Amino acid sequence: MDKIVIIGAGIVGSAIAFELSQDPQFNITLIDEKAPASGSSGAALGLLMGVMSQKIKGRAWRLRENSLTRYKTLLPELKQLTGLEIPYNRHGIVKLLLAEDDLEKWHKLAGKRAEQGYRLKVWNRSELQSFCPEVQGEEIIGAVSSPDDLQINPIPLVEALVEGAKIKGVKCIFGQKVDNFKISSSHEDNKRVCESLQVRGASLDADLVIVCGGLGSTPLTEELGKTVKIKPVLGQAMVMSYDGWQKLPDFNPVITGDDVHIVPLNDNRFWVGATLEFAHEDGQVMEDKQLLTNLHQRAIAFCPALKSASIISQWSGKRPRPEGRPAPIIEWLEGYDNVILATAHYRNGILLAPATAMEVKELIMERAKQT
Questions:
Q1: Does the N-terminal peptide bond of residue 328 adopt cis geometry, omega within 30 degrees of 0?
Q2: Mean pLDDT, 10 residues at a time, over the chain (371 residues)?
């Protein structure tokens, strides 16, 4: 499987390209019909909520833990290799707790994380306000502080992954769509093989194809004679500006509560997001501006100072959610010897990208051993 073609240059495809580029035996091509991070990756808030997740075992926790571990080495590695800056919040994430929250559940999780070597602290309301003075909402009873979780700006991250992959020899084809596939039968196991792809009329040979197209993965699998159903879940967010934000000199974390995320940036700006808007039966989803207004008001309820903040811009993005199964999909495409799916990460694409890349590499290595 020397010739590898990766379709999709969002965070997942770019992470896979960079991870596989560490092995010189691979001849890798990364393809996207648009520029890198043009889809859901570019619209994400970049939250890495792994340690504060209630997942403590199994696949869900393994992926989260592997990604958090890899990010510790990946960010400095990319900076040294490419010279590109990747903005990220080093102060962790603070989750606000409301009256209906089960405090005992969070204390148990904090104990479990301590056993696993992670920091997770449960604060009462007074402790919360001493660390985050702008949080003043009356309904808030305390918070969970997770300094080992991160927030990373996704577009510079994808750009650095792509640049790093290029430096390592990955060929990139952007702005060109995969038109179709040449498929043959495998006589050994009655499975099919994708021999090559057509890109703008030119044939591209492939020993292995990795589909990382997010919502675009469904039409790609249909071209391969299989249908992997992935539906869009729209999220709206906004950029706000406020120069009076009170914070400790060395502590300005992401604040999240009731699915509202307040992400401090440079230059007294904040991202506030994101809504959760599911597709209709026909698969279409339209922006509901009232939901964005509700999100804005909820953020103000948690941090009243934001009432004086100005809204600079708004944006939305569609997250790829698999239908009828857990996210993400990381597996061999049914009926094929040489097609891997690594897609449909829903709301955790940024968080799970490094672990996904490692899982894909493991699938390849296991198959190589079998042959």
A1: yes
A2: 95 98 96 96 97 96 98 98 97 97 97 98 97 96 97 98 98 95 82 93 95 97 95 98 95 97 95 96 91 98 97 97 96 96 98 98 92 71
- For 154, the token pair is 């996704």
Per residue in 255-290, pLDDT (tens digit) is: 999 999 999 998 899 999 999 999 988 888 999 999
Identify the three-state secondary structure at position 369: helix
- What's the residue count for the chain? 371
Cα separation, 231 vs 123, in Å, equals: 38
Query: How many contiguous H segments (helices) and E segments (strands) does the chain have?
Result: 9, 21
| Residues 88/68, Cβ–Cβ less than 8 Å | no
DSSP 3-state assignment of 120? coil
Task: Please give the Cα distance from 253 to 47 (Å, whole number).
Answer: 11
Own/partner pairs for 22-25, CB < 8 Å, 24+ apart? 22/168, 23/361, 24/169
DSSP strand pairing (93-98 vs 202-205): unpaired
What letter does residue 156 receive in the DSSP assignment?
H
Tokens of 141: 């009873």
The residues near 267 (Cβ < 8 Å, ≥ 6 apart) are 241
Q: How far apart are CA 350 and CA 344, in angstroms?
A: 12
**pLDDT for residue 201:** 84
329: nearest Cα among 158, 213, 189: 213
Dig out the tokens for 317 from the structure: 């993005």
Give the H/E segment covering residue 69: helix 58-82
Task: Say what the pLDDT of residue 88 is.
Answer: 96
> Which amino acid does the sequence have at 48?
L
Rg, the chain, Cα only: 22
The structure tokens 């770019």 sit at 14
Contact (CB, 8 A) for 54 and 119: no
> CB of 322 within 8 A of CB of 217?
no
Whether cis (ω within 30° of 0) applies to the bond prior to 44 is: no
Of 295, 286, 235, the residue nearest 262 (C-alpha): 295
